[in-house]
């Protein structure tokens, strides 16, 4: 017999939010329920995603539905923030991820944000690499201090802005010479604060420069926020593709499903200035295409090796700001393809 929406609702009335002394249905916390065969997806709205009750209710929903409707069902619970919250004006959240450091993920994130803004979109960038923040340097706002205002009795951060892009980073709150020796929970709490204690306003895209790997912050992003999709950054080497494969598969686990929007291959080839028609594939070819085929996604673009990328990034001016450069043209094409993939969702 097919599972009905009413059966799910009736079961969820057993899940109590003890802080408010009522069940999550009568508290109007259920935003959406979708049923496909034995797969049930439930979206639940919380005032604050860092509330300890999120995890408690998450587990309770899974346990209750399996007890009531059968242990063979699959339950996907998606906690989201209150629509009146700080992310309510953000239409799309794009996570830029990699499996390892050193592939130019932050540089790609910065230039992607710039290129989206140049295309006419309202854009913000969040530096979530809390142990190695570099976005402030790349946008020329190193040493900046976000303003803090009070709203409804709570402090709210106002992001800095440069090149028409709203910018927030943990780097604004620590000294450049200070080493952050944080355990996972501390880094995770800092990430949640950057996401929810900031007034991003109206944005078409919030680009998140994620830390490399598959740690606590990646789990929090997938479980607690309504992410549009992830962009994978790799270089042509097989070892880099192998690492990013592991990062990609993390988001394809049953409870962590985030759409993979495509791959950006950084440091793809080198073209000498005196031989503009030649391409030298210094780090090899084919690994990114093979990975894209395995994952069933596209290679959104290939970024050439350009010494000026580092030079301009260190000066706080992402190279995509300069029209006509090979890097700028590559990111222009990436933006077109990225928007097309988002439109399919």
Concise summary:
This protein has 345 residues and is α/β, with parallel strands linked by helices.
Summarize the SSE layout with pairings.
Elements lengths: L4 H8 L3 E2 L4 E2 L6 E7 L2 E8 L6 H17 L4 E8 L8 E8 L7 H14 L4 E5 L7 H4 L8 E5 L2 E5 L1 E3 L2 E5 L14 H13 L6 E7 L6 H9 L4 E6 L3 H13 L9 E6 L21 H9 L3 E4 L4 H8 L11 H19 L1
Parallel strand pairs: 4-5, 6-12, 6-13, 7-11, 7-12, 13-14, 14-15
Antiparallel strand pairs: 1-2, 3-4, 8-9, 10-11
Helix pairs in contact: 1-2, 3-10, 7-8
Domains, number: 2
Number of helices: 10
| Arithmetic mean pLDDT | 88
N-to-C SSE series?
HEEEEHEEHEHEEEEHEHEHEHEHH
CATH topology-level fold name of the largest domain: Rossmann fold
Q: Roughly how many Å apart are the termini?
A: 30 Å
Assign the CATH architecture of the largest domain: 3-Layer(aba) Sandwich
List low-confidence stretches.
Answer: none
Number of beta-strand segments: 15
Strand content: 15-25%
3D shape: globular
Largest sheet: 8 strands, mixed
């Amino acid at each position: 017999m097919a599972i009905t929406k009413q059966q799910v609702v009736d079961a969820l009335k057993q899940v109590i939010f003890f802080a408010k002394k009522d069940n999550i249905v009568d508290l109007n916390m259920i935003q959406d329920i979708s049923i496909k065969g034995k797969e049930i997806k439930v979206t639940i709205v919380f005032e604050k995603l860092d509330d300890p009750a999120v995890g408690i209710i998450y587990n309770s929903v899974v346990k209750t539905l399996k007890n009531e409707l059968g242990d063979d069902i699959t339950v996907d619970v998606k906690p989201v923030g209150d629509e009146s919250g700080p992310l309510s004006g953000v239409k799309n959240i794009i996570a830029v991820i990699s499996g390892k450091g050193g592939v130019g993920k932050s540089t790609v994130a910065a230039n992607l944000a710039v290129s989206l803004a140049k295309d006419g979109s309202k854009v913000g960038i969040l530096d979530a690499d809390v142990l190695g923040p570099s976005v402030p340097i790349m946008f020329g706002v190193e040493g900046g201090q976000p303003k803090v205002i009070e709203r409804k009795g709570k402090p709210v951060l106002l992001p800095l802005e440069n090149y028409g892009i709203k910018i927030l980073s943990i780097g604004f709150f620590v000294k450049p010479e200070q080493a952050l020796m944080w355990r996972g929970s501390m880094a995770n709490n800092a990430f949640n604060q950057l996401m929810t204690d900031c007034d991003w306003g109206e944005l078409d895209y919030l680009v998140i420069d994620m830390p490399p790997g598959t740690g606590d912050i990646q789990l929090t992003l997938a479980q607690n926020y309504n992410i549009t999709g992830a962009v994978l950054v790799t270089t042509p080497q097989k070892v880099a593709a192998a690492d990013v494969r592991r990062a990609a598969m993390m988001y394809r686990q049953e409870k962590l499903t985030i759409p993979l929007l495509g791959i950006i291959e950084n440091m793809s080839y080198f073209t000498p200035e005196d031989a503009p028609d030649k391409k030298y594939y210094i780090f090899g070819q084919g690994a990114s295409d093979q990975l894209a085929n395995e994952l069933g996604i596209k290679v959104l673009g290939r970024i050439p090796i350009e010494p000026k990328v580092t030079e301009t990034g260190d000066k706080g001016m992402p190279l995509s700001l300069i029209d006509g450069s090979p890097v700028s043209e590559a990111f222009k094409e990436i933006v077109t393809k990225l928007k097309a993939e988002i439109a399919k969702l």
